[in-house]
Amino acid sequence: MLLLAVVLFWLALRLRQRSGLPWASVVADDTGGTMLERPLFAPRYRLTGKPDYLLERRGQLVPVEVKPGRRANEPYESDLMQLAAYCLLVEEAMGRTPPYGLLRYAEASFRLDYTPAVRGHLVALLEEMQELLDADDCARSHNQARRCAGCGFYAVCDERVDE
Ligand code: SF4
Asked: The domain containing residue 97 runs over which residues?
């Protein structure tokens, strides 16, 4: 029994090491474990969502976004903004400002410090998106017929590109 316990502990250590995530309590996870009761909501920014994991480290909450199929040496800007959005959601909905968020790809982890500059950039982006959503019409931002062919609005879109 003791040997089994040691083996299991060693396996757990290896798994944790491979995940690239720090040792911390998991407050919530969106992968079938301890779930948040409902998605986080920030009415001020009309923003909602749930991070894959929410860790508690040294008394601070840290959202984690996991993209197991993505392999890259640098984080994608869109993934960083998604992570920043989770930081903002935790701040607004739970009243606790995360110091940073973590992004995990298949083989690498990245840390996004949640600074006032990052927050400001995100808020400006959200405002821009909201203006586009509120606009009566919106110009196409690409020239890709294949993208339109797979779009749910194809049949009713005046801007669609045909192959
Ligand atoms: S069909 Fe219209 S909404 Fe859909 S991708 Fe093309 S331009 Fe965009």
From this structure: 14-156
